[in-house]
């Protein structure tokens, strides 16, 4: 299936590895030129070179922290008029909410709510003027089914979800969609760190925790970043113009609800 976005330009945040890399890879395979950002320059440069060599698209690597004004400015200077924006950032640490002071909350909000909103603000009017835009925010399955020890993430990402719900109904008539992708358990460094945290608390090994997490999922396994990337690419496609303001769970059926 040709997704109809060959030759478009995408700005993909936190794209050096994990789910962000999955999104960048699937878009590159569809012929989308990329500007990719991440905090780690070495890993980002490796990913950019890999995508160039494999798919023959233009890939510009911009090291920086998208949660900071400096990082956003650098990314937007390299890609001021993207057709596609994939907002993504590392999640805040797990813990007990009694341990989190105001600074911890502000840091979580900066990374997982305010930064994506500011990125959207910077590019959405240009998308509207051009008559095409796709904005995908990588959030979390915890938006639908909160996880107690991820309170910082639950709060910040749910705030972003509420904001998107209003905006998405305003932009779609101009050819610009805004959607959220909600990952469940995927083979990423983020999941490994969460499982290691749980293993320490439970007095178990990481492998025990990983096996139990995979077995507990209705799919009987963890997700792959390629699967997640392909879901993102579809939401960015020409065919997805009638999908907006949605929260798409990609979790192997882990969420037990009807809606």
TrEMBL record:
It comes from the Bacteria. It holds the Pfam family adh_short_C2. SUPFAM superfamilies: NAD(P)-binding Rossmann-fold domains. InterPro entries: NAD(P)-bd_dom_sf (IPR036291), SDR (IPR050259), SDR_fam (IPR002347). Belongs to the short-chain dehydrogenases/reductases (SDR) family. This is Oxidoreductase. It comes from Anaeromyxobacter oryzae. The lineage of its organism: Bacteria, Pseudomonadati, Myxococcota, Myxococcia, Myxococcales.
